[in-house]
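Q: Two folds, back to back.
A: First:
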Amino acid sequence: MNRGRARQTIFHDSQYFQAFLATLAEAHARFDCIIHAYCLMSNHYHLLIETPKANLGRVMRHINGVYTQRHNKLKRTDGPLFRGRYKAILVEKGAYLLQLSRYIHRNPIEMANPMVEDLAKYPWSSYPAYIGETEPQDWLTRDFTYDMLGHRYKYKQYKAYVLRGNDAEIADFYSKVKTAAVLSSDDFKHALKGSVLANASEKVVVKQLQPELTISDVVNAVARFYHCPISQITSVIKGPSKGFEGRKVAMYFCQELLDARLADMALFFGLGHGGSVSFITHQIRKRRNDDKQFAKRLSDIFEHIMKQVT
């Protein structure tokens, strides 16, 4: 979740809401995050997302950064939009995910002055799609939530579940001045490296959700995959080896997996500026989308890289 600076409005009209949804679609496509639910309010948003690739930081940097650019372009302004980095809560997949889905979808009416009388009429959340009132976004995942209800009539039963109101435990969890960083059963907390996360800070939790990787880790792994010296990845090469695939792929994964600045990546790879990195990674993404065999190779390289943190 995140909120506008000084609680300022971040969604002014439908253009802004649509721009944010487009940004979510891009994050889903680029980083393989699973979006279970969303609710966009006037000055904040809630997302229920799953990150199988342990790349939460990269996902959120894209969402907050790209939307800020789009907001400022529409508003003809500049500067930061959000109050700071996003707030992250680790949620146990199970009953807590179902309850949190309900909490997120009830946001428009859980206010002193409700935004709508009927939640189905609020267009900027995933709730209307969950109850069959609108077509879902292609990137919205609902089946896991439906399966947890265990009912045959999924639209009707999910609607009844949401309209019953929030669970007392969830309401208490969010009513606290300092919200905890883990929403789960005690067994789940203890299963995460003993009891390390039982009373963990958000910083510790987020650290568990993203890989302990550096640019050097990515480069070393890519070099091993391509059976080439590291210098062939990091150095600007002229002649027959110019345009070496492994070098471009290394830049691509540094951008996809790490929270690294383009300027730092450019310096590491011997390039003049961050724009060169952005151009090269754009080429790789385009090839990935056009070439299934290459996309499969990228998937294999990703698995090879991630072995370093397992």
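A: Second:
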Amino acid sequence: MARLALILAYDGSVFQGWQTQPTGRGVQDHLEQALAAIAGHPVATICAGRTDAGVHALRQVVHFDSRAVRPGSAWVRGVNAHLPPQVAVREAREVDEAFHARYGASLRRYRYLIHRSPVRHPLLAGRAGWIFRPIDTDRLRASASTLVGEHDFSAFRSSECQAASPVRRIDTIEIAEHGPLLLMSFVGNAFLHHMIRNIVGTLLMAADGRRPVEWVGEVLASRDRRLAAPTFAPDGLYLDGARYDSRFGVDAWGPDEGLDGMLAALR
């Protein structure tokens, strides 16, 4: 058996999340069917981050085992021929059997794209979160800095979260502006269910003046989900890579041109 790693991109708006579903509408369902068609046997996949319904991926990392001997192109173009247009394998390579897409990831990067406008834009539907209130980016950065570091993130954790511990580490939260578009980038060791969407909603309430900047730290310290903002829309959330030990040769932490190119096209 050989172990293979894939880097996958998908438009999450048409799927019920990454994980396999009884309806067959999870990204995992489509990918495993496509892989089985090429491998000639059933295939089970493991991913770096189990994205929710409506959440996208620029660089989702997946590994699977197969006894099939195929050229590298078969695991890319061949698999893509069996996938819907909203999901595609971008890269594939054989890796050491010790590689694990989920447990081997030391860092994960997510980005949230926000459209700031009094009126929503139909061409951004499903691609960016929308807020009609003016955003003060200085307040946004100040409140975001409160969350950097290792904390108990219970206040930003979904009630359906199955993680054994609410403690996670956020290394950086970066904010960039592109005209009416605001891009928030989160890098950390791991994230709880709905954690980023709950954080985004809370940060925006401080950034638009509905709450003081200090409120974000108070919510974090409370460990009480009821005190944070409602879960923000999945539309603008993108999984953009995971970092692994260099010995595996899985380059899933590319430069920023993925979203930069998308943002340039939207302006």
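Q: And?
A: Residues 257 and 263 are 9 Å apart (CA to CA).
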